């Protein structure tokens, strides 16, 4: 562990009576054991682990502590989605014999105050962010607010939010700078030409103080579906424009089709094989999206547009070339299975390295680096089990291989698949939330579970039960013969296996 550098060449300029100069030079040339760029779900715990191991550690953050997950990703969206679910169930009250206005109405009237919905979200984000800042302080991490870029192989230049630029060097540098929303390519598109707050991305839409009258969502992936259903439930008309032939392109076709049925039943219009060609001002509505699809060109007048067509890595400001760090054609940092970049002093973790872009993956990258660099372990990302949950309602939980992936990966093995509608699950029927299906993919000979999907009520939690079995190498007959409490959602794991084909 080294201390602050005072380059000999500059010492002569220091006048002992002028501490101001000393301070400038001290902060301009500082050496650390570890520098972490980006305070996301990988960067924050990693910086704490290094500081707690008595390494001199700096964490550089250009925006706010906590990264995407806490500030504009998981935390705020799941908080907003909770409001949407309350609106949905309140409206459906009469189906359960519960009325808020006229007894015997087909549906309850629901009023949504978007400012209250938004405030609830802001409060939770603030509390999570403040908690993270406190933990960093307690761990002894030096938090520097500014934008980092490489000057050379081991020097980081920081354009600080307050104060002069800093040059920092380190024995080890970790890049965890995440991703940001992509803007779909459209000729002549200029966001500034539209009324403020009408052309939105996944961050700006969370600050709406009103419910859109018609929201056009561009992109039918995780972000498009979560926000599309949320705003439909809060009262907006919603159209989802999806370039591909199915929603959620990575899912098996029947799961994506079931998701489409669910969303259409909720009143969302879905245009598949369709992409925007232009967005323009309209005489009667703030924006109008021109789309091109199977049936030619059409125009979608809207109050608001949401870009949810993927995300791009925050790498272009890092000047990676100066440090000899290579990236892919899509600008993600290239790493090996131990997260080493092409510069032996630099590692990359989280979304910025490409691959599955989830908080738990960024956090697992941190765990790997902590084990390998601070505890002399040798973990690798190869064959890591990747679970995820899309927080639509019902949720889509998935772990391991999809059917098409299993067949591609093991062409010589017999793959069996079980698909069971959620309407076979007693608890789902009792709560009148039986939309969806669950699907298991297994190796016929060994009876190992290769993958599992649940698009159903609490699909993420059911999936996690199966994930636990997969982690422990528990084969499907054990789940089939287990005693699950009745009537739990888990007891569906007694029954699904009888559908294996
Ligand atoms: C709307 C939305 C909902 C999501 N919901 C979920 C969910 O439910 N579950 C889930 O698992 N994942 C979800 N995700 C994805 C998840 O948020 C990300 O995978 C995760 O936050 C990535 O963490 P990270 O540590 O890689 O980077 P980030 O959390 O993105 O952190 C990167 C940090 O680096 C900073 N930074 C960037 N460049 C520089 C620089 N040059 N200098 C200094 N600092 C810099 C940024 O300001 C940022 O704070 C969601 C994402 C979005 C957008
Ligand atoms: N619950 C969660 O875990 C969660 C929630 C939100 C986001 N995320 C993470 O954030 C990432 C980014 O989410 P996302 O939904 O923006 O990206 P995505 O890649 O998952 O989906 C983007 C979708 O937009 C479509 N698309 C792309 N260009 C288009 C165009 N020009 N016109 C119409 N459609 C177009 C794609 O076909 C795709 O279906 C996700 O991959 C996920 O890792 C996770």
TrEMBL record:
Q: Which cofactors go with this protein? A: FAD
Pfam annotation, one family = Pyr_redox_dim
**Keyword field contains Protein biosynthesis:** no
- Residues binding FAD are 78, 351
Record: residues binding NAD(+): 219-226, 310
Q: Which residues form the Pyridine nucleotide-disulphide oxidoreductase dimerisation domain?
A: 386-494
Name the domain of life.
Answer: Eukaryota
Q: Where is the active site?
A: 486
The UniProt record lists the FAD/NAD(P)-binding domain at: 32-362
The disulfide bonds in this chain are: 69-74
Could you say which protein family the record assigns here?
A: Belongs to the class-I pyridine nucleotide-disulfide oxidoreductase family.
Protein name, UniProt field:
FAD/NAD(P)-binding domain-containing protein
Lineage of the native species? Eukaryota, Fungi, Dikarya, Ascomycota, Pezizomycotina
């Amino acid at each position: 562990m080294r201390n602050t550098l005072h380059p000999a060449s500059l010492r002569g300029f220091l006048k002992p009576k002028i501490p101001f100069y000393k301070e400038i030079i001290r902060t301009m040339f500082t050496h650390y054991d570890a520098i972490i760029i980006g305070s996301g779900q990988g960067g924050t715990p990693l910086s704490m682990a290094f500081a707690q191991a008595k390494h001199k550690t700096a964490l550089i953050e250009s925006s706010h502590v906590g990264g995407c997950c806490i500030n504009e990703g998981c935390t705020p969206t799941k908080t907003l989605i909770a409001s949407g679910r309350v609106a949905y169930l309140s409206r459906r009250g009469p189906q359960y014999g519960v009325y808020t206005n006229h007894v015997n109405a087909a549906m309850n009237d629901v009023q949504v105050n978007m400012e209250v919905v938004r405030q609830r979200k802001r409060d939770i984000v603030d509390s999570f962010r403040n908690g993270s800042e406190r933990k960093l302080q307690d761990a002894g991490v030096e938090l520097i607010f500014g934008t980092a870029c490489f000057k050379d192989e081991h020097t980081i230049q920081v354009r600080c939010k307050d104060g002069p630029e800093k040059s920092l060097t380190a024995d080890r540098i970790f890049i965890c700078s995440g991703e940001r929303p992509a803007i779909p390519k459209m000729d002549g598109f200029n966001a500034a030409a539209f009324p403020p707050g009408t052309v939105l991305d996944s961050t700006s839409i969370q600050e709406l103080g009103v419910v859109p009258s018609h929201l056009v969502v561009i992109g039918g992936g995780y972000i498009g579906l979560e926000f599309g259903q949320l705003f439909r439930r809060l009262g907006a008309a919603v159209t989802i424009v999806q370039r591909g032939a199915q929603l959620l392109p990575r899912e098996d076709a029947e799961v994506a089709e079931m998701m489409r049925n669910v969303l259409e039943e909720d009143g969302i219009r879905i245009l598949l094989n369709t992409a925007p060609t232009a967005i323009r001002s309209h005489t009667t509505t703030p924006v109008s999206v021109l789309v091109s699809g199977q049936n030619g060109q059409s125009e979608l007048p809207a109050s608001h547009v949401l870009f949810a067509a993927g995300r791009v890595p925050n790498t272009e400001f890092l000047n990676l070339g100066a440090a000899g760090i290579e990236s892919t054609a899509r600008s993600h940092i290239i790493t090996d299975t131990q997260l080493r970049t092409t510069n032996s002093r630099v590692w990359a973790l989280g979304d910025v390295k490409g691959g599955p872009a989830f908080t738990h993956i960024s956090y697992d990258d941190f765990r790997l680096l902590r084990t390998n660099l601070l505890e002399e372990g040798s973990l690798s990302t190869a064959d890591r089990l990747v679970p995820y949950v899309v927080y639509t309602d019902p949720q889509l939980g998935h772990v391991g291989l999809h059917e098409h992936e299993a067949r591609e990966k093991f062409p010589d093995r017999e793959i069996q698949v079980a698909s069971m509608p959620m309407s076979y699950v007693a608890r789902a029927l009792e709560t009148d939330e039986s939309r969806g299906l669950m699907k298991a993919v297994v190796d016929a000979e060994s009876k190992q579970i290769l993958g599992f999907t649940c698009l159903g009520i609490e699909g993420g939690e059911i999936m996690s039960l199966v994930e636990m079995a997969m982690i422990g190498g528990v084969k499907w007959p054990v789940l089939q013969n287990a005693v699950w409490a009745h009537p739990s959602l888990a007891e569906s794991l007694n029954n699904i296996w009888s559908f294996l084909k």
